[in-house]
Amino acid sequence: MPSPQLPHETLTNIFTYFPHPDDLLFHCRPRSTLFYCSLVSKDWRAAALPLVWSTLRFDTMLEKHTIESLRRSMTNSRPDFACRITQSIAYVTTISLTLPPSEPGWAQAAASLLNLLSPEQLRKIHLIFRFGSTDLDTSHLLATVFPHLTRNLRHLIIASFANSGQEGDIVLRHLPPSLRTLYITNATSPNAKQDIPYNFSRMFSLTKLTDLRLVHVHHIPVAEFAAFLRTYGRTLCSLRLQNCPEIQSDIILATIAAHCSRAVTQNPHNYDPAVQRIRDAAYYKVDTLYSVLPAWPPLYQAQYSRWTDDADQASQLPSESEGASWLNGVWSWITQRVSGRVSK
Amino acid sequence: MSDPANITLVTMDGTTFTVPSAYLHRSKLVQDWLRSEGDKQAMEVKHVTPFVLQGVLNFCEIHAEDTSEPLADPADPTKPFEADPRDDAFRGMPDDQLLQFTMAADILQIPELVRLTAQEMASRIDGKSPDQIRAMFNPDDLAEEDVDSDNEMGEVGEEGAISK
């Protein structure tokens, strides 16, 4: 006799407690508990599938032929299977894009798959720009996403923005008005070919923004940013400005105090060019290592954790692997020098 | 009219439980009922057996004087959640009872109990095969064609999802 049926929301609640990566392909190999839950019953399947398919991570671990396999499955000879895959694609709400790709044709394959998404379904995009030359395919991939797939986008996180080169403007020009969260980090670094004065005017028209984080972003016009804070500062719940020399001024601090009454702010860090040079050099070392071994998952995880400054993720650093030890050494080097300068 | 200091709950088989209203201050269902129909004699809690309701009320009594902020979203696993030794009895119950407590927590909308039961359910399910999960909770069957298509999806992932 079947047990009483748990409501859909309760099952979803239970499934969110599984400790595992959230990416679709990590659910398939090795198969995750969540994947197995989708095979238990119709109710469990209905609750598990949206979570299994919620995130697609396009990075160096996702090979071109895997993207093409997924794309081909939409036109599978078995119409019922193709239909199910097409329906499942509709559950994708988050994508993560690591650019530029290291595999020829990868960007085209990714763009082809992303074209299957509806303009309304994405809620979160995580863009990570690695050091490397961008090309027309990368531009085409970004143009596939921005603005066509961002109609209901709520959260946009851009890491190492300086590495995007001119392509970064494709993103900034098409920031969707639906955004609630916007993080832009490292828009200037020694890895970049040039210090690009990006156009931030679109950012100043985001009326629904509640969480803004700018770390190491240069060339933001003070007057426009102050006007933005005066007009929309009341809707901000969180504001973090770090190493953004132009806007870390008395004018901006006074504007924050007067117009961002709801925002939890972090004290803007004093910009110290000497400290920054040390940090930039260290980042360059890490990035160089990463470009040498892009497909090594532990190293990728370690590098990513460090870039995101996430203490929880950083604590998961695999300590026994050789590369991670090397990386730890690099970060000790950073820590010693940066903390030495900051403490003075 | 019922005593405002106490509340009477009636289970699916007519068994009544009268407890201090303060025990159930974290139950959204009870609080909504008190606001809209508090002048009635007793609140019906359908689909909950006397045994399970007694257990839920025990949980509420244990936590009645907790001063922590009510949970806004019990499904947010990013919030740190340390096991409370007072809840050990709930973690040790058999699978079928845990399932019923999970449903009761959902019906009564007690976020702290929802979180406790959901986390316990997840820890028991984690690492289990579909057959093992079915043996534990005995839900309705899944049609064979659904299983077939999911196996094919798994094969898509196996073609090379992760670099060697």
Automatic annotation (TrEMBL), chain A:
CDD domains reported for this sequence: F-box_SF
A Pfam entry, by short name: F-box-like
InterPro entries: F-box_dom (IPR001810), LRR_dom_sf (IPR032675)
Gene3D superfamilies, alphabetized: Ribonuclease Inhibitor
Domain F-box: 5-58
Domain of life: Eukaryota
Protein name as annotated: F-box domain-containing protein
Upper lineage: Eukaryota, Fungi, Fungi incertae sedis, Mucoromycota, Mucoromycotina
From TrEMBL, chain B:
Domain SKP1 component dimerisation: 112-146
Pfam family, one: Skp1_POZ
Residues in the signal sequence: none
Keywords carried by this UniProt record: Ubl conjugation pathway
Source organism, top-level taxon: Eukaryota
Biased composition (Acidic residues): 141-158
Family annotation (InterPro entries): SKP1, SKP1-like_dim_sf, SKP1/BTB/POZ_sf, Skp1_comp_dimer, Skp1_comp_POZ
Residue span, SKP1 component POZ domain: 7-64
Bias kind Basic and acidic residues: ranges: 79-93
A GO BP annotation: ubiquitin-dependent protein catabolic process
Pathways per UniProt: Protein modification; protein ubiquitination
Gene3D superfamilies recorded: Potassium Channel Kv1.1, Chain A
Stretches the record annotates as Disordered: 68-93, 123-164
Function: Essential component of the SCF (SKP1-CUL1-F-box protein) E3 ubiquitin ligase complexes, which mediate the ubiquitination and subsequent proteasomal degradation of target proteins.
The family this protein is said to belong to: Belongs to the SKP1 family.
Subunit and partners: Component of the SCF (SKP1-CUL1-F-box protein) E3 ubiquitin ligase complexes.
Stated name of the protein: E3 ubiquitin ligase complex SCF subunit
Organism of provenance: Jimgerdemannia flammicorona
